[in-house]
Amino acid sequence: MRLLRLVAVWLAVAGVCACHRTPPASEDPRPDRTSNTPAPNAATDLAYVCPMDREVRSNNPGKCPRCGMALVAGIPDPTEYHMDLTISPKPVKPNEPVHLAFEVFDPWKDRRVEKFTVVHEKLFHMFIVSRDLQYFVHAHPTWHEGRFSYDITLPKPGMYRVLGDFYPEAAAPQLLSETIFVAGAEAAAPAIGRDYSTKAAENLSVDIATSPPDPVAGVTAQLRLTLTPGDGLEKYLGAWGHMLAASDDLIDMIHTHPFIADGSPQMQFSLVFPRPRPYRLWVQFQRRGVVNTAHFDVAVHAPEAAAH
After folding, report:
1. pTM to 2 decimals?
2. Is there a contact between 138 and 127 (Cβ–Cβ < 8 Å)?
């Protein structure tokens, strides 16, 4: 009887082992390792790259999962073009209409660029921010007779920074800035610090959390945004969200899109702040056909201060 029990136990163990055995080569579920198709060679094979998020690469054509732009092959090295801004009439006065005209020239022969690639449904994205960081505009000048044009009324005296975001055909995307001065005495800009409070926008509210909690200059920071309510969210200009980050002195201006987003009420931006300064972040989302704009202030620390 004892012998029979030992035999039964041995058979049970053998059965379990048989259920978890490694299949022979003929049953290997992985791709045929003897295939004549070579593995991709990163040194020689054609790579498709996102023009805006260059770390996004693929061996096949398609669209960038981050910003939705078409991946392109053989993208040239980044080269800065020239952008001229013509303003009329001058001097610019508060609350009076002014015409802005943007012309783009190549960096080699200073020829005017006539062809542009559509980026997020537009040929040209324009951002205008006042020195006191109270005025923010994201608009889209129209192409006419070799230049981009836009009419606007600026509300108060002082300096405004204008950021042009565009993509000359067969080149690299550009982010170039110009300055507008509106006549009159400019009020002193209030100091900004850290403001992560919940912001109520047009038809949703926005919360932010950063990792690390105190971002460090030169180090990638993860910015997590939560939208409430989370229903009815739609892509705005081809992306689930847009962010403009501007330093308090308006020297640094960065336009970016979510690193992680799928239409849910939570999304994540990834950003490297260039300098240890306060930054204002404007974020834009669309819900039920309405564009929402909110802003947060982030205090960016120096690496040595963060270490201490």
Report:
1. 0.77
2. yes
